[in-house]
Amino acid sequence: MSLREAIQYSLMILLYLFLQIFFMRNIVLFNYAFCFIYIAAILLLPADMDRMYTLLVAFAIGFVVDVFSNTFGMHAAATVLIAYLRPFLIHYQMKSRGAERAEVGIRAQGLGAFVSYIFPLILIHHSMLFLMEMNNFGMILYTLIRIGASTLFTTILIILLELFSKR
Amino acid sequence: MLQLVDFVVRNRFFLVFVLLEVLSVWLIVRNNTYWGATYFNTSNYYVAKTLAFSNSVRDYTKLDEINADLASENAHLHALVAKLSQTNSGQLPAGYVPDSAFAARFTYTVAKVVDNETNKANNVITIDKGTAHGIKPGMGVISATGVVGKVRFCSEHYSVITSILHSNFMVSSKLVRSKEIGYAKWDGKDPNLIDMIDVSKYTKVYKGDSAVTSDQNSVFPPNIMVGKVEHVAVNPNQTFYNITLRLATDFRNLSYVYVVQNHQLVEQENLKSRTIELKK
């Protein structure tokens, strides 16, 4: 990764963290749909980035969000999990399409492939987050609705942001 | 030995992954350790400053409601003063002389809400007063309209409050008309509704009755509003009512709160802890 790319991606991470902390934290649709836009920063990192760095960056991002929302380590745990699973999914997609270079992004992959890449990871992230936050088992149905609604909301928002961003 | 090194090198990503996950879970479980409680939450000075900045814009749009709340609190206090000056608390038994130190045991500190959550399963509130203003963990917090929560962490200038909308927070409360005592506890779903548990079903509970903090509370002053009875149900297998209260405080629009300091709390707790030691 060149220095220019490194700066570019650092700025992207900061931008997503800013969005999350100042805007998305306050937005909840119908008391069910939350938006954790910051995970886009992990999902959109270059596919060939060193896995060790990805894990550490994911932990740092999750931890910053944790500090700002008093959750201690829940976001960090969930974000590290998707950062670990991400390379497997990219690899699997690359093999099934027979592509030579692994690339991430709506322009490089096309809408269908992009959605099938981000959707499972967002679902895993949100499930882990909400299930960890759940206090008692009686809330399970309520939590499942929250997971579903939030996954949809985050996915749609990430796609919209990707469509309108110039790379 | 070489095999071990080989194993570590081959599985280094998985090992780092497990290490980071264990670290996160450790942070969640040990969230009461000193440095975790001091730096890594919204009572951190820089974090709270940032949140206060983002909150200041929203505050202007809420001024109307804040004014209305304060005006209604004023009216309530005026009514209380009038009532007190007329009846010199006639319900006390003849020989009972109230201790003036006991009557004046509560003092209040006004604080501004810097950050507010209502939608999570465990909600906390951050306020802009801390140890520098005499605030300590364990103090009660109320607003113009009712009970808010209890102080959990303090830094020098900011504090984090466990809101009443938190799974391990209960308030001992009393129904005004039926004089029954129970606990108010949030079930984790709607931020407007709260459950009241442990109310015996052999007394009549009226719909619309007010629930206030009980006299058995050492953190909150008595007769602070908690909510109004919204829904009463009886489970035939149990001896308790299932009561749902509509909260008096609208947590979404919380702007200013009062931190309640009970000067005799230490004395009271010391006495209590002595009875526990005697039992052992």
TrEMBL record, chain A:
The chain crosses the membrane at residues 6-23, 30-47, 53-85, 106-128, 140-164. Keywords: Membrane, Transmembrane, Transmembrane helix. It comes from the Bacteria. This is Rod shape-determining protein MreD.
UniProtKB/TrEMBL annotation, chain B:
The chain crosses the membrane at residues 12-29. InterPro entries: Cell/Rod_1 (IPR042177), Cell/Rod_MreC_2 (IPR042175), MreC (IPR007221), MreC_beta-barrel_core (IPR055342). The keyword RNA-binding does not apply. Keywords: Cell shape, Membrane, Transmembrane, Transmembrane helix. This is Cell shape-determining protein MreC. It comes from Dyadobacter endophyticus. The keyword Ion transport does not apply. It holds the Pfam family MreC. Signal peptide: none annotated. Belongs to the MreC family. Residues 113-261 form the Rod shape-determining protein MreC beta-barrel core domain.
